[in-house]
Write a structure and sequence with these properties.
Length: 126
């Protein structure tokens, strides 16, 4: 079981994805906070006492995941990011990785792959 101070933020506009990821990550021992949009995440001013990472959908209305990544970098909020998408392509994944993403997973992805990516991201935030 992970330390209770580790937090995984999930930002996805699909409620079923948010719920399933929350259940998966909680069952693995992580603290989880979910958001329906990038704007909602930015407005929350999420600060955690321990390691954290962001599981972020690429394609969302208004502010995309890639836009949120850019905005967080401009605010010097260097949280490790794992992108998830059902509509990704190679150039998009290369762009995200070049800008510092930890991983880029295509939906549907294997639960173990996501948990491995989260573990790697949290280690980078320690």
């Amino acid at each position: 079981m992970q330390k209770p101070t580790t937090t995984v933020f999930v930002v996805d506009d699909d409620p079923s994805i948010r719920e399933s990821l929350s259940l998966l990550l909680s069952s693995a021992g992580y603290g989880v906070k979910t958001f329906a949009s990038a704007k909602q995440f930015l407005e929350s001013e999420c600060v955690t006492p321990g390691p954290a990472c962001l599981v972020l959908d690429v394609k969302m209305p208004d502010l995309s995941g890639l836009d949120l990544q850019k905005e967080l970098k401009s605010r010097n909020y260097l949280i490790p990011i794992i992108f998830i998408t059902g509509h990704g392509d190679i150039p998009m994944s290369v762009q995200a990785m070049k800008k510092g993403a930890i991983n880029f997973l295509s939906k549907p992805f294997d639960d173990a792959d996501l948990l491995d990516a989260v573990k790697e991201a949290l280690l980078k935030d320690m």
